[in-house]
Amino acid sequence: MGYKIVVVGATGNVGHEMLNILAEREFPVDEIAALASRRSMGTEVSFGERTLKCQDLEHFDFTGWDIALFAIGSDATKIYAPKAASQGCVVIDNSSLYRYDPDVPLVVPEVNAEAVDGYKKKMIIANPNCSTAQMVVALKPLHDRARIKRVVVSTYQSVSGSGKEAMDELWNQTKGMFVPGQEVAPKVYPKQIAFNVIPHIDVFLDDGSTKEEWKMVAETKKIMDKSIKVTATCVRVPVFVGHAESINIEFEDFLDDDEARDILREAPGIMVIDKREDGGYMTPVECVGDYATFISRIRQDSTIENGLNIWCVSDNLRKGAALNAVQIAETLGRRCLKKG
Ligand code: 2RA
């Protein structure tokens, strides 16, 4: 006895990955529906060996469906998530719309799986921002051992985080650099992304930070511990898939790098690739398609009493979005929606 699953936004980067991962992990699916906007109605998407034809989200009735994985923008989510919830279908939402709602659990199963138990309040569970998800997976085991006081993180975020149009812009802009007359002006991004880095993701806030940076602060506090101080600088880089992060951590208690490495090696969802030699670390192009959050460059920060530096890399479409959403569904099934 399995679940009736809906994937909303099935034609986008994350929606595609949700279908792939549901199939890869053999999630117990009795029935599955792929939904998209009216203009994408009829579009075929893969679910393992099967091909699904996208149905129209606007007229879909969620009654009798168990879980809906949402991978659409906040504006559309605002319309359809409450509709699905009111029809008895639990929504796992990848947009930022509900992440900061005190009545909606914000969940990374390796960190706060028990939070899914609170789904009944709104029948909605929120998926964190991609840059937050990989970071809290890395921080949680270290926090449990030596209590984190402060985190300083710089991110190197791939263009797939902005969607397919951004990936096309990077590709065409890069090609255009070498073919006279085929230059491609910035459109998705305010400046050239090819052979460049852009210290600006999402909108600017009054204090000079960006909303992407604010998300990492607010979400880390909600998922892990509101006492942790976080400051972030989020940067877009000319990489197609895979986010990387340089994370500086200050603890309450001393934690040496060898012990930290041992702790991380045993922690859920983490793969440590950390040798002090050429190539002894993970890079974004190598993480694509993997489930793991990779940790490298583990070393003491001797400029403060209890400091550590780490390098963290993960597939932003997987652990950063689709995989985490499917893991939430798995956790929800185990803890709250037992079948059969
Ligand atoms: C980005 N985190 O990388 C944002 C949304 N996926 O663009």
TrEMBL record:
GO terms for biological process, alphabetical: 'de novo' L-methionine biosynthetic process; diaminopimelate biosynthetic process; isoleucine biosynthetic process; lysine biosynthetic process via diaminopimelate; threonine biosynthetic process
Residues that bind substrate: 157, 236
Family annotation (SMART domains): Semialdhyde_dh
InterPro entries to which the protein is assigned, alphabetical: Asp_semialdehyde_DH, Asp_semialdehyde_DH_beta, NAD(P)-bd_dom_sf, Semialdehyde_DH_NAD-bd, Semialdhyde_DH_dimer_dom
Residues forming the catalytic site: 130, 243
Protein keywords: Amino-acid biosynthesis, Diaminopimelate biosynthesis, Lysine biosynthesis, Methionine biosynthesis, NADP, Oxidoreductase, Threonine biosynthesis
Single GO term (MF): protein dimerization activity
SUPFAM superfamilies: Glyceraldehyde-3-phosphate dehydrogenase-like, C-terminal domain, NAD(P)-binding Rossmann-fold domains
EC number: 1.2.1.11
Residues annotated as binding NADP(+): 11-14, 39-40, 160-161, 316
Pathway info: Amino-acid biosynthesis; L-threonine biosynthesis; L-threonine from L-aspartate: step 2/5; Amino-acid biosynthesis; L-methionine biosynthesis via de novo pathway; L-homoserine from L-aspartate: step 2/3; Amino-acid biosynthesis; L-lysine biosynthesis via DAP pathway; (S)-tetrahydrodipicolinate from L-aspartate: step 2/4
Principal EC category: oxidoreductase
Catalytic activity: L-aspartate 4-semialdehyde + phosphate + NADP(+) = 4-phospho-L-aspartate + NADPH + H(+)
Residues at which phosphate binds: 99
Pfam family, one: Semialdhyde_dh
TM regions (residue ranges): none
Superkingdom assignment: Bacteria
Subunit structure: Homodimer.
Protein purpose: Catalyzes the NADPH-dependent formation of L-aspartate-semialdehyde (L-ASA) by the reductive dephosphorylation of L-aspartyl-4-phosphate.
Family of the protein in this entry: Belongs to the aspartate-semialdehyde dehydrogenase family.
Entry protein name: Aspartate-semialdehyde dehydrogenase
Taxonomic source organism: Roseicitreum antarcticum
